[in-house]
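Project standup — Tuesday

K.O.: blocked on the structure for the chain from last sprint. Re-posting the sequence here as requested.
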Amino acid sequence: MSGKILIVEDEEKLAGLLRDYLLQAGFTTEWLSDGLAVVPRVREELPDLILLDLMLPGRDGLDICREIRTFSSVPIIMVTARVEEIDRLLGLELGADDYICKPFSPREVVARVRTVLRRSGGGQTLQAAGLVMDESRYKATLQGRELDLTAVEFKLLQFLALSPGRIFSRSQLMDRIYPDQRIVDDRTIDSHVKKLRKKIAAVSPGEELIYSVYGVGYKYEAS
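H.V.: unblocked you, prediction finished:
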């Protein structure tokens, strides 16, 4: 596996260590230490994955993640010494794909990078019966009209649409859209589905797409 990894880390020694291990694993790397430089650089040349430190000079990592998710679904792994649960949940709600706490093993970081890249599939575009989902920009349109989806809603709709007709349990859907394995109940998925249906109906009245299967879960089916 190869790819370009953008390391955003203000500790020079740690950044150098990560670069060495990633280079040995076959990746190319770029290093930024200033939070203000990240978004302009990502807009200029999109990397295959970002290792994003939470505490940065110039701009906080959560703010950076939030802005990147407005125009790209590039995989992001948050790296931080702040382990409070609120930071963990907020980071992943903003669209981070994984979360690593300091101190960590560089080998673990390489393993996580490989896993997230395999899971992300390189930013595919899905087109099916009027639905177009561009993962590289986190943009979804239905019948030519844009669906204003959150990162979690995008992942949920994409996952269902990639397997039309297949029924997924709430547990399977939670595992997919919450890779950090946080504890959430079934009503969380129901809430996301309700919001998705409302947004779909707003741009295409009468179109349902996501169907409930009583006692089992949900499926995607185009009209």
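K.O.: great, moving the ticket to review. The chain has two domains: 4-120, 125-220. DSSP finds eight helices and twelve strands in the chain.
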